[in-house]
Amino acid sequence: MTRHIAVLGAGLSGLSSAFHLARRCPGSRITLIERNKELGGWVRSRRVELKEENATVLLEAGPRTLRPNAPSVLELVSTIPRLPDWLESSNGWQIHLLALGDQIITVPKSSPAAKARFLYIPPSYGERLSGLQRIPDSLWSLIKSPMSRILVPAVIQEGLKFNNRPQGSTDESVDAFLRRRFGDDFAQIVGSALIHGIYAADSRQISVRSAFAAMWDAEERGWGSLIRGSLFPSKKPTQGIYETGDIPRLMTAASVFSFRDGLQTLTNSLEEYLRRQSHVEIMRDSTVSFIAGDGRDFKITLANGASIAPSHLISALPTPQLYQLLAPSFRGLKPFEYLTVNPTSSVHVVNIVFPGNPSTIHPAGFGYLVPRPPQGYPSSPGEGLGILGTVFDSCSVSAQDISIAEKTGNVNAEFTKLTVMIGGPYPVPQMQAAVSSSDVKQSSPQAEYVQRVLKQLSIHLSQQLPSPIYWGIHSNVQCIPTLLPGHLERMSELRECLSSEFGDQFQIVGAGVGGVSVGDCVEGGRAAALALAEY
After folding, report:
1. CA-CA distance, 271 to 95, in Å (whole number)?
2. For 66, which DSSP code?
3. How far apart are the first and last CA of the chain?
4. Quick one: DSSP state of residue 43?
C-alpha cells in the first residue's frame, strides 16, 4: 500500500520535511497543509520602492541572515549544477538541491558588520558604563573599553572558581549559569542582552542547555570552569552526509550570508520545488481543527469539514497549537503535556529607512542589543517601549538594495536601512499584522508608535535623527518559543513516547522542539524525513 504522509505547517520545518520527503520518498503520497495562503512561516522578505531615491530596498520581517555553520542549510543552496534525475546520488554523484549559489550574498569576516557589535547600556546602570558600547574584540580594545570593568573581573573569577554547579543539576537558566560562573553584572548586562537578541526572551527563563549547550559541556570538561574546558577539545557529534557541494569552501571567509532577494528566496525555492512534484499536494488556506488516530492511520479534520487519512504524520505546528488539536487519546499520554510547557514571545519588527548614508546615522557594525532594565521589565506597554536591539542592515546586506546611482557602502550610500526589535519579555500594544508609512496617516496610532521608536533611537545613537523615508511594522505574535530549563529531557521523553506508541508514524518537529534558529528548523525537518525514508 502506498504511504500517505501528511506534513502540518509550511514554515521552515514543514517545508524542509516536505522537501526531503519528496526527494527521498518518490513512491509516497505527500500532503503539505498550511493555514495561511503564503508558505514560509515567519520568513517574509519584501522589496519596497523608494521613488524619490530611484531605488528599491529589501526589508525582512523575520530572520535576515544565516550563519554558514548549518550543513542542512548549506545543502539547500549548493551551487553544483543539477544533473538529470537518473544521475542522482545513487551513482555517487553529488547534486545540488535548490541551486541558489548565484543568489548568495556574504558578509566577510573582515567587515565592520562582522567585527563590530555593540551594547546599548541604559543610564540606570551608571554613567560610567552607559551609552552605546562596542563589545571588545581584542585585548587592546578590552583595555580601552568601559566594559572592561565588567568583563575583566568576570573572566578572572570564572577561571579561578571551583566547580559550583548544584549537585544533581541537569539544567538551569542562562541567567543562573552566568551568575554562577561570571558574576551578577555580567549575567545581568551581557547575558540578558544576548538572550534578547536570539530568543527575544528573559534570560532568567531560557534553558542554558538548550540555548548554549557548548558552555554547559565546556564547564564539565573543565572541572567546573568554561575557561579551563575551552583548553580541551570537545567531542564532535557524528555528522551525517550532506550534499553541500562547494558551498562550504565559498563560505570560508563569510561571517553570515543571505540572498539578493532576502531569506524568502529559500522558502520560495522550496515551495517551487514541491509544486513541481506530481506526488506532492500543497493545501493552502487549510486550517486543521482536529487530529485523531487509531494506531494504523490518522484522521485530520479541517475547519471546512473536509478530512484526510494519512498513514504517517509530521507536525511542524507550534507545539501549544498542536496539543489543542489532538484527540483525548493522544493528550492522555503524559509526555504530550510537555507540548504546552514553553511560553512564546511576541515581537514587533520595525523596519526604518532614513535618507543619507549609514555613517551619518550610526557607527559601522552589525548593530546593538539592549540588556534588561536593572529594575525589571515593565508590566504594561505604556511603561516603556521595550527595544531589544537594533540591526544596522545597510552595513551587512546593502547588496540587496538596488539604486540607479549605484552608490553603496557605509559612506557613499544614499539611504540607510535598519531594523528595530521590540517586545519579547516587554509587553507590546496590539497591532495589525503589517502596516507601513504608505498605509496610514501621520496622526495614526501606528505613526505615533514609530515616533516613540525614533525618539528612543535618537537617545541610543546620541543624535537627532532625520525623518524616515519609509517605515514598516510587522507584529509577529507568539513567534519564538522560550525553551525553559529541562526542555531537552522533556523532548527526549516525548520522542521515546512517540516511538513506542507510533513507531515511525508520528513525528513532531519545529522551533518548539529542536531549537529556534533557521538551521535548527531545517535540520529537524530533514531528520524527520530521512527517518521515514530509511524505514
Report:
1. 19
2. B
3. 14
4. -
Residue 433 to residues 75, 172, 213, 350, Cα–Cα distance (Å): 32, 35, 34, 12
* 346 contacts 477 by C-beta, under 8 angstroms: yes
**Which of 52, 61, 102, 50 shows the shortest CA–CA distance to 402?**
50
Cell numbers standing for residue 461? 545613537
Under the banding of pLDDT at 50, 70 and 90, the label for residue 535 is low
pLDDT band at 413 (very low <50, low <70, confident <90, very high): confident
DSSP string for 103-167: GEEEEETTSHHHH-EEEEE-GGG-TTT-EEEEPP-SHHHHHH-TTHHHHHHHHHHHHH----PPT
Helix (H) or strand (E) holding 422: strand 415-423
Q: Are strands 387-391 and 307-308 parallel, antiparallel or unpaired?
A: unpaired
Give counts: helices (H), strands (E), the chain: 21, 21
Q: Is the pLDDT of residue 306 over 90?
A: yes
- Cα–Cα dist 17/8, whole Å: 10
Rounded to whole angstroms, the Cα distance separating 27 from 262 reads 34
Query: CA torsion 86→87→91→93, rounded to 10°?
Result: -150
Which is more confident, 189 or 127?
Answer: 189
Rounded Cα gap, residues 298 and 505, in angstroms: 9
Residues 6+ apart with CB under 8 A from 463: none
* Mean pLDDT of the 394-403 span: 90
Residue of 23, 205, 191, 123 whose CA lies nearest to 15: 23
Tens digit of each residue's pLDDT (9 = 90 or more) over 66-115: 999 999 999 988 733 343 443 333 333 333 467 677 788 999 999 999 99
Rounded-to-10 torsion of CA 514, 519, 523, 526? 130
In angstroms, the Cα distances linking 10 to 25, 42, 44, 502 are 18, 10, 13, 23
In this structure, are residues 389 and 196 in contact, taking their beta carbons and an 8 Å threshold?
yes
Q: Partners of 366 in the beta sheet?
A: none
Rounded Cα distance, 494 and 508, in Å: 9
> For residues 346 and 479, what is the distance between their CA atoms, to the nearest angstrom?
6
Give the pLDDT confidence of 490-510 residue by residue, as tens digits: 999 999 999 999 988 999 999
User: What pLDDT sits at residue 444?
Assistant: 92
From residue 427, how far is each of 100, 103, 188, 440, 454 by CA, in Å? 39, 38, 20, 23, 19
| Type of residue found at 293 | G
Which residue has cell 501528511?
A: 6
